[in-house]
Amino acid sequence: MLLKLKFHRIVHILDAEELEGLITRLWRCCATGDVIPAKKVIRVAEADVNRRVGTKGKNALFVAAEKGHQEILSELLNRPKVSGFPAVELELADRYGRSALNVAALRGNHKCVASLLEKGAQVDSQGEMLNYGIVIYLSEA
Q1: Angle, nearest 10°, between helix axes 60-67 and 110-118?
Q2: 4-11 — which CB contacts under 8 Å span 24+ positions?
Q3: How does pLDDT run across 67-116, given as a tens digit for each residue?
Q4: pLDDT of 26-47, one tens digit each?
Q5: What is the domain-level CATH number for residue 11?
Q6: Cα–Cα distance between 75 and 40 in angstroms, integer?
Q7: Beta partners for 10?
Q8: What 3-state class would DSSP assign to 72?
Q9: pLDDT band, very low/low/confident/very high, at 122 (cuts 50, 70, 90)
Q10: SS3 of 102-125
Q11: What phi and psi, each to the nearest 5 degrees, are found at residue 11?
């Protein structure tokens, strides 16, 4: 698949390998909290930010919520639909059935939980056991 990215006035065509590299870079930035490169990829890349990386089925939003990187999470949540790719999906679950909201609550990342709820993440979208962290968060709020 070929996609066009505009870097100022230069148009660059991304091949599948380059696109995969951008998604991997975004995922790593979400894990480490490296805000500036994450924002650049989110804003510039015409790529599917919902793409899962690794064997556990985590996407960028999930990783940012899990690690508590609020600024990156907000950037993902506010990313509009781009060139046929959907905006970030709030309810995508990892291979264990956990959503970004579930894992943010379980990790005690209250600002991330608040942002996800504000954007419309569903408390009851997963099973009862997975909502335990959300119940704790709501009782502490």
Answers
A1: 140
A2: 4/46, 5/44, 5/45, 5/46, 6/44, 7/44
A3: 999 999 999 999 877 666 668 889 888 888 888 998 898 888 989 999 99
A4: 889 999 999 999 988 887 656 6
A5: 1.25.40.20
A6: 10
A7: 7
A8: helix
A9: confident
A10: HHHHHCCCHHHHHHHHHCCCCHHH
A11: -105, 125
> Are residues 49 and 26 in contact, defined by beta-carbon separation less than 8 angstroms?
yes
Tokens representing 82 are 């781009």
Range of the domain at 108: 3-140
The total number of structural domains in the chain stands at 1
* Residue 49 contacts residue 60 (beta carbons within 8 Å): yes
Alpha-helix runs per DSSP H in the chain: 16-32, 35-44, 60-67, 70-77, 100-106, 110-118, 132-140
Q: What is the largest CA-CA distance in the chain?
A: 51
Place of tokens 């508590």: 68
- For 5, residues 6+ apart whose C-beta sits below 8 A from its C-beta are 11, 12, 14, 44, 45, 46
